[in-house]
Design a protein that fits this description.
Number of helices: 4
Strand content: under 5%
Oligomer: single chain
Largest sheet: none
Order of helices and strands: HHHH
Helix content: over 70%
Number of domains: 1
Distance between the termini: 51 Å
Radius of gyration: 17 Å
Shape: elongated
Length: 109
């Protein structure tokens, strides 16, 4: 019989945090740009200028944020049952931040 070994939960937590990093950076850019000027068109143009040509549409950027957040939620929820309490708290915070960023991407971007 062949036995398949599941990856350790620490690896799932690490992948979850890595999936969350691009979403946090994009939301950070969005918040930085939206607090600079009062003209909406200039702000949108400034925000889109941070990305390559194939990502110049808001729909693609929002989709990337949502995909990263969903991946972080899935991988973070796989690591909830950590034996170490600190890692369990980190995984719960990662999932909470991913949910909040996903909601912000849906309703504000």
């Amino acid at each position: 019989m062949s036995s398949t070994k599941t990856p350790p939960r620490k690896l799932w937590l690490f992948v979850s945090v890595l999936c969350l990093v691009p979403a946090v950076l994009i939301i950070g850019i969005w918040l930085r740009v939206m607090n600079t000027t009062s003209n909406v068109e200039i702000r949108k143009g400034d925000f889109v200028s941070y990305f390559p040509a194939f990502m110049q549409e808001g729909f693609i950027i929002k989709g990337l944020v949502l995909v990263c957040c969903i991946a972080a939620i899935i991988f973070g929820s796989r690591s909830f049952n950590q034996p170490i309490v600190a890692l369990r708290i980190i995984s719960m915070i990662t999932v909470l931040i991913a949910v909040l960023i996903a909601l912000a991407a849906l309703f504000s971007m």
